[in-house]
TrEMBL record:
PANTHER family: THIOESTERASE DOMAIN-CONTAINING PROTEIN, UPF0644 PROTEIN PB2B4.06. Residues 92-157 form the Thioesterase domain. It comes from Echria macrotheca. Transmembrane segments: none annotated. It holds the Pfam family 4HBT. This is HotDog domain-containing protein. Coiled coil: none annotated.
Length: 187
Protein backbone atom coordinates (compact mmCIF):
# COMPACT_ATOMS: atom_id res chain seq x y z
CA UNK A 1 0.00 0.00 0.00
CA UNK A 2 1.26 3.43 -0.94
CA UNK A 3 0.89 5.53 2.18
CA UNK A 4 -0.44 3.61 5.12
CA UNK A 5 0.05 5.14 8.53
CA UNK A 6 0.61 2.66 11.30
CA UNK A 7 -1.83 4.21 13.79
CA UNK A 8 -4.27 2.56 16.19
CA UNK A 9 -7.17 3.78 14.02
CA UNK A 10 -5.75 2.28 10.81
CA UNK A 11 -4.84 -0.98 12.61
CA UNK A 12 -8.41 -1.17 13.99
CA UNK A 13 -9.90 -1.22 10.48
CA UNK A 14 -7.24 -3.60 9.14
CA UNK A 15 -8.62 -6.16 11.64
CA UNK A 16 -12.24 -5.87 10.36
CA UNK A 17 -12.48 -8.16 7.29
CA UNK A 18 -14.89 -6.06 5.20
CA UNK A 19 -12.90 -2.89 5.92
CA UNK A 20 -9.58 -4.61 5.21
CA UNK A 21 -10.95 -5.68 1.81
CA UNK A 22 -11.59 -2.02 0.94
CA UNK A 23 -8.15 -1.04 2.17
CA UNK A 24 -6.23 -3.62 0.15
CA UNK A 25 -5.88 -1.58 -3.07
CA UNK A 26 -2.34 -1.19 -4.35
CA UNK A 27 -1.89 2.60 -4.37
CA UNK A 28 -4.22 3.53 -1.53
CA UNK A 29 -3.21 6.12 1.06
CA UNK A 30 -4.72 5.32 4.46
CA UNK A 31 -4.38 7.68 7.41
CA UNK A 32 -5.94 9.02 10.56
CA UNK A 33 -7.40 12.41 9.61
CA UNK A 34 -5.55 15.42 11.02
CA UNK A 35 -8.86 16.58 12.54
CA UNK A 36 -8.72 13.55 14.87
CA UNK A 37 -5.43 14.71 16.38
CA UNK A 38 -5.69 17.03 19.43
CA UNK A 39 -4.28 20.53 19.03
CA UNK A 40 -3.12 22.81 21.85
CA UNK A 41 -5.55 25.62 20.96
CA UNK A 42 -8.61 23.27 20.89
CA UNK A 43 -9.01 23.74 17.15
CA UNK A 44 -11.11 20.87 15.76
CA UNK A 45 -11.84 19.78 19.35
CA UNK A 46 -15.16 18.15 18.46
CA UNK A 47 -13.53 15.41 16.38
CA UNK A 48 -10.15 15.39 18.13
CA UNK A 49 -11.36 15.29 21.72
CA UNK A 50 -15.12 15.29 22.36
CA UNK A 51 -15.96 12.44 19.96
CA UNK A 52 -12.53 10.76 20.00
CA UNK A 53 -13.21 8.15 22.67
CA UNK A 54 -13.83 4.39 22.71
CA UNK A 55 -17.56 4.79 23.43
CA UNK A 56 -18.14 7.55 20.82
CA UNK A 57 -16.08 7.41 17.60
CA UNK A 58 -13.76 4.58 18.57
CA UNK A 59 -11.75 4.73 15.35
CA UNK A 60 -11.66 6.96 12.26
CA UNK A 61 -9.48 6.57 9.17
CA UNK A 62 -9.61 8.14 5.71
CA UNK A 63 -8.37 6.56 2.52
CA UNK A 64 -7.94 7.63 -1.08
CA UNK A 65 -6.12 6.87 -4.28
CA UNK A 66 -3.87 9.81 -5.18
CA UNK A 67 -4.63 11.50 -8.51
CA UNK A 68 -2.29 10.75 -11.45
CA UNK A 69 -0.46 14.06 -11.09
CA UNK A 70 0.56 15.62 -7.74
CA UNK A 71 -0.96 18.91 -8.96
CA UNK A 72 -4.38 17.34 -9.72
CA UNK A 73 -7.27 17.87 -7.33
CA UNK A 74 -8.22 14.84 -5.23
CA UNK A 75 -11.87 14.31 -6.12
CA UNK A 76 -12.92 11.37 -3.91
CA UNK A 77 -12.21 10.15 -0.41
CA UNK A 78 -13.49 7.30 1.73
CA UNK A 79 -13.56 6.90 5.50
CA UNK A 80 -14.33 4.23 8.05
CA UNK A 81 -15.72 5.14 11.47
CA UNK A 82 -16.61 2.81 14.34
CA UNK A 83 -19.58 4.22 16.25
CA UNK A 84 -20.07 3.69 19.98
CA UNK A 85 -23.09 3.99 22.31
CA UNK A 86 -22.33 7.57 23.41
CA UNK A 87 -23.57 8.62 19.94
CA UNK A 88 -27.04 7.19 20.60
CA UNK A 89 -30.19 9.18 20.03
CA UNK A 90 -32.43 6.16 20.53
CA UNK A 91 -30.98 2.98 22.04
CA UNK A 92 -28.63 1.48 19.47
CA UNK A 93 -29.31 4.23 16.91
CA UNK A 94 -26.90 7.06 16.16
CA UNK A 95 -28.27 10.57 16.73
CA UNK A 96 -29.16 12.29 13.44
CA UNK A 97 -27.04 15.32 14.31
CA UNK A 98 -24.01 13.06 14.67
CA UNK A 99 -24.77 11.43 11.30
CA UNK A 100 -24.78 14.93 9.77
CA UNK A 101 -21.56 15.83 11.60
CA UNK A 102 -19.83 12.72 10.26
CA UNK A 103 -20.97 13.42 6.69
CA UNK A 104 -19.81 17.05 7.02
CA UNK A 105 -16.46 15.90 8.41
CA UNK A 106 -15.77 13.38 5.65
CA UNK A 107 -16.91 15.75 2.89
CA UNK A 108 -14.58 18.34 4.43
CA UNK A 109 -11.69 15.88 4.23
CA UNK A 110 -11.56 16.54 0.49
CA UNK A 111 -10.56 20.14 1.20
CA UNK A 112 -8.22 19.20 4.05
CA UNK A 113 -6.35 16.60 2.02
CA UNK A 114 -6.09 18.88 -1.02
CA UNK A 115 -4.71 21.66 1.23
CA UNK A 116 -2.18 19.25 2.77
CA UNK A 117 -1.15 18.16 -0.75
CA UNK A 118 -0.63 21.83 -1.72
CA UNK A 119 -3.26 21.66 -4.48
CA UNK A 120 -5.48 24.38 -3.00
CA UNK A 121 -4.50 27.46 -1.02
CA UNK A 122 -3.84 27.02 2.68
CA UNK A 123 -6.94 29.03 3.56
CA UNK A 124 -9.85 27.59 5.56
CA UNK A 125 -12.83 26.16 3.75
CA UNK A 126 -16.20 26.23 5.52
CA UNK A 127 -19.51 24.50 4.99
CA UNK A 128 -22.00 26.91 3.39
CA UNK A 129 -24.77 24.31 3.47
CA UNK A 130 -25.18 20.58 3.91
CA UNK A 131 -28.42 18.84 3.01
CA UNK A 132 -28.80 15.35 4.44
CA UNK A 133 -31.37 12.72 3.59
CA UNK A 134 -31.72 9.99 6.21
CA UNK A 135 -32.44 6.72 4.41
CA UNK A 136 -32.16 4.10 7.20
CA UNK A 137 -31.21 4.07 10.89
CA UNK A 138 -27.46 4.21 11.56
CA UNK A 139 -26.70 1.59 14.20
CA UNK A 140 -24.15 2.23 16.92
CA UNK A 141 -21.82 -0.59 17.85
CA UNK A 142 -20.99 -0.89 14.14
CA UNK A 143 -18.54 0.43 11.59
CA UNK A 144 -19.74 2.57 8.70
CA UNK A 145 -18.19 3.52 5.38
CA UNK A 146 -18.56 7.15 4.31
CA UNK A 147 -17.65 8.18 0.78
CA UNK A 148 -17.46 11.78 -0.44
CA UNK A 149 -16.74 13.14 -3.89
CA UNK A 150 -16.48 16.43 -5.72
CA UNK A 151 -19.66 16.98 -7.75
CA UNK A 152 -18.41 20.22 -9.33
CA UNK A 153 -16.42 23.41 -8.78
CA UNK A 154 -17.36 27.00 -9.45
CA UNK A 155 -14.38 29.27 -9.72
CA UNK A 156 -11.54 28.72 -7.31
CA UNK A 157 -13.55 28.98 -4.08
CA UNK A 158 -16.82 27.00 -4.40
CA UNK A 159 -16.74 23.22 -4.06
CA UNK A 160 -19.98 21.25 -4.43
CA UNK A 161 -19.61 17.91 -2.69
CA UNK A 162 -21.78 14.82 -2.32
CA UNK A 163 -21.46 11.91 0.06
CA UNK A 164 -23.05 8.74 1.36
CA UNK A 165 -22.89 6.71 4.55
CA UNK A 166 -23.15 2.94 4.08
CA UNK A 167 -23.18 -0.12 6.30
CA UNK A 168 -21.16 -3.30 5.85
CA UNK A 169 -23.72 -4.64 3.34
CA UNK A 170 -23.33 -1.51 1.13
CA UNK A 171 -26.81 -0.33 2.14
CA UNK A 172 -27.03 3.46 1.97
CA UNK A 173 -27.98 4.89 5.38
CA UNK A 174 -27.74 8.62 4.59
CA UNK A 175 -26.94 10.89 1.64
CA UNK A 176 -25.52 14.40 1.70
CA UNK A 177 -24.94 17.20 -0.74
CA UNK A 178 -23.31 20.43 0.21
CA UNK A 179 -21.33 23.48 -0.70
CA UNK A 180 -17.94 24.25 0.80
CA UNK A 181 -16.52 27.72 0.27
CA UNK A 182 -12.90 28.69 0.64
CA UNK A 183 -12.59 31.91 2.61
CA UNK A 184 -10.91 34.92 1.01
CA UNK A 185 -8.28 35.00 3.74
CA UNK A 186 -7.12 33.11 6.81
CA UNK A 187 -9.22 33.42 9.95
Amino acid sequence: MAGQQNTPDVSHFQRIPWCAAHLSSQNLIIETPHTRLPKPDHEEALMAQTLNRPDAIAAFAVFYTPPPSPSDLLEEVGAFLTLGPMLNGWKGICHGGIVMTILDEVCGQLAAINRARGVVKDIPMMTAYLNVKFVAPVRTGTTVLVRAWMARREGSRKYFVEGVMEDEGKRVLARAEGLFIQLKEKL
